[in-house]
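Your task:
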Amino acid sequence: MESVSPLLLVLRGAMDAVMRSVVVRKKGMRNWWQGFQALSHHSSPSAWRFQQEEENRGRTVCSSTSVSSSSCCSSSALSSGIAFFSSTPEHQVSSLKPKVDILQGLGLREEEIEKLVPRIQGYSVDNVREKVSFLENSAGVGRKSLVKIISSDPAVFGRSIEHSLKPKVEFLKDLGLKDEDLGRVVPFVVDRSLQGMLQKIAFLESSGLKRDRIGSVVAAFPRIFSYNLENNLKKKTAFLESEATGGESIAQLLTTHPAVLGRSLGNLSRRADFLRSKGLKASLLVRGPCADVSTRRLKAGVDRLVGFGFRMTDAASQMLKKQPNVLFRTAESIGKRRDFLAEALQCSIEEAEQIVLRQPSILNQSEKGIVSKLEFLVDNMGYSKKEMMKYPEFLTSSLEAKIKPRHRVLESLKSLDLLKKKDANLLSILLKMSEKEFVQKFVQGSPEAAALYKGSMLLS
């Protein structure tokens, strides 16, 4: 019989254990979790260790005699999967189950718990329970966000509530964050220093944001606390200020579109270059959907409009600034509306296109509504449909809430010869004046005009 060195036997045994563990895992079994469940059914870690030693002896016999047994393989796979416990001090093993129970209660999956256990074994059960309670109840962090915090940064259990977590929560509240916003923002600051948070807020203030607006910016885009101040935020805002504000201050831009800071500087630059190459203004890259969609969708939308026949002029930039959703309409829907307008207004396709460019919200109006307004324009006001080339906003104004009430008042004044010559253009007055200006000039002080203008919110 060939003699085998003890070292070789040990190596063979180790390799067998590893291979069996891999095979079992491929079958979908979680050895570590089975080991933990086995541990939880013993009266003490010592009793479990005794059984583990017995199983190890059984595994050695199985390996040396080359006997194939499913029960033996299962046992050895189990002992290899839970080897972690054999090197863990007994008092730490005893406190492991209540910690795992807490993590299970939060909804962590078995494989997530397996990765976390070696990293949280140094924290007491009370410590884990205390931090979970604070984040859930005092900071308003939801279960899903809490799971993400623990999974990505289990060191949160080592942070002091009084000296680390609580001051950050209080700081966010001082910024004006509401309770319902705290839970979404806290996950982005638990691993950040309070000094770093203060620097980010000071930067926003130096950019012109008022203190009472910073809270809403942070609530809308909490990831701002994750970015490096010098190499990220300052460089992006400098780029946006020089290339993409479109006349706005950087403070206005960050107030309305803070998520634009989530794009890389390279991405912002490429998007700006693309828009300019199409004859559009770079400021569009921070407008509503244009800021939120992928670069691929942005390019596809612009190319679709160009292919459809829209000329990418300053007028097009103004259109997309007002109605960026137009970029994501199908060419068919835009074409149908353009053709409908050409027929309804008895104008050319090119003229209909100009109306859409000047008043893009017309794409959101129903065809029935447009027809009703044109009928009122011709039959009641005595104007030609051609006037829509000058006043396309007529087709997007409310017929019942704006056009009819104002027309009644103006027609009454006109019949009494009370309109001045400069007010003779009824369409201009009807459409260009704000509600407040119209009421102050033509309605206030006249019970008759007020009766004709009934329903105005300013007269209630």
Remarks:
- The CA atoms of residues 60 and 422 lie 106 Å apart.
